[in-house]
């Protein structure tokens, strides 16, 4: 089953973390994913660089900056194709950003009939 691990972390806490150690941890995490035959992830730019588009009432509203004023921001994602939710959760626990926020594990919808 495919799962998406959505990374939500506190950008300020992550920026304050020891950067050399953090990126070494991410390199080890990515290497472990590769050794397990799983795909790598994508890192996003900070939320301050985002653009928000909302449409309603026949008009579009375009805003700069984060979608919501929250402690955690959406930072990136990984896909893992593993046999069970438990294994996907185990990978999420290993993700270095789990120390700075939340990793949401969500099944990827299978569009085939009966799934």
What descriptive keywords fit this protein?
single chain, 3 helices, 115 residues, 29% helix, Alpha-Beta Plaits, flat, alpha+beta, two-stranded antiparallel sheet, 4-stranded antiparallel sheet
Following the backbone from N to C, one meets helices and strands in this order, namely EHHEEEEHE
CATH class: Alpha Beta
CATH topology: Alpha-Beta Plaits
Q: Output the structural class.
A: alpha+beta
What proportion of the residues is helical, as a percent range? 25-40%
Radius of gyration, taken over Cα atoms and rounded to an integer in Å: 16 Å
Tally of separate helices: 3
Mean pLDDT: 87
The description of the largest β-sheet is: 4 strands, antiparallel
- β-strand percent reads 25-35%
**Shape type:** flat
Fourth CATH level, the homologous superfamily = Dimeric alpha+beta barrel
Task: Report the strand count.
Answer: 6
The main sheet orders its strands as 2-5-1-6
Distance between the termini: 11 Å
Q: Which CATH architecture?
A: 2-Layer Sandwich
Low-confidence stretches: none
